[in-house]
# Entry
Amino acid sequence: MIEQARQVLRMEAAAIEALIPRIDEQFVLAAQLILETKGRLIVTGMGKPGHVGQKITATMLSTGTPSFFLHPAEGIHGDLGMVTEDDIVLAISNSGETSEVINILPSIRRIGAKIIAICGNAQSTLAQNADVVLDASVEQEACPLGLAPTTSTTAELALGDALAVVLMSARKFTANDFAVFHPGGALGRKLLMKVANVMHGEEENPTVTVEQSVKEALFVITDKGLGATSVVDAEGKLVGLITDGDIRRGLEKGLDFLTHNVGELMTKQPQTITAEKLAAEALRMMEQHRPKPITVLPVVDKEGRSVGLVHVTDLLRQGIV
# Structure
């Protein structure tokens, strides 16, 4: 079993290696057609190549190329109405003779859309009717019967990935663009989520005035449950930060410490962040704080007024890493 599995991987790896010298002007033309179209990239294929086509569609969509998958069997029963003359059709078939794919070619031609073929037979009906042909031929399938699409679908998928990445680079598609299309993923959260989305603001924002006592600060810290409270002046501007750790260390001096003014204990001019900054930046500031990392970060507005507090657990809970 181990040796057979390894042999399958060798065969599929060799099939991908064989594609490399075939990346030529036809590939460039395919990319240019997609880049220059005013419409969308419509991917079609039947059976296993159809599943490959759906994955290629998903990759194109997430990397900046408007695309959708057209099932060829549904196409001949009305779904060809999705296709316009401004679109590019990417048709996938190893043999190039898949009947469901061949049957929609005349209509696509009549509509006026360009056709790019990914197939394993340059003399096939699909190849002969395509504007551009990407050669995905393989010597043999990895299936011991030589029947189940294995090596051929790997080659088709690899060509689709190569095309998607080239288009992505040509469009100057950035990580921020990627995040816009993946707001629910870890990258999306990292690149799109702002401090305002995770901070404790308004009634949840723990604050005390500089004239209040350490005891009163302790009550606020306990009530809000964030392990710290911002210290503000009469105008609401941040002047310091006091944490439960500060209070614990102060209590070593005696209980009368609780009656002292928070101004005696607070960290003056603590590191701060504004609400419109990325949450990932807040986490970086906490982790890189010296002499040691911190767990809370006061949030201020442009005038320096306290508007919130962000805790490291809130960031981690949101998947900001």
User: Anything to note?
Assistant: The longest strand covers residues 88-93.
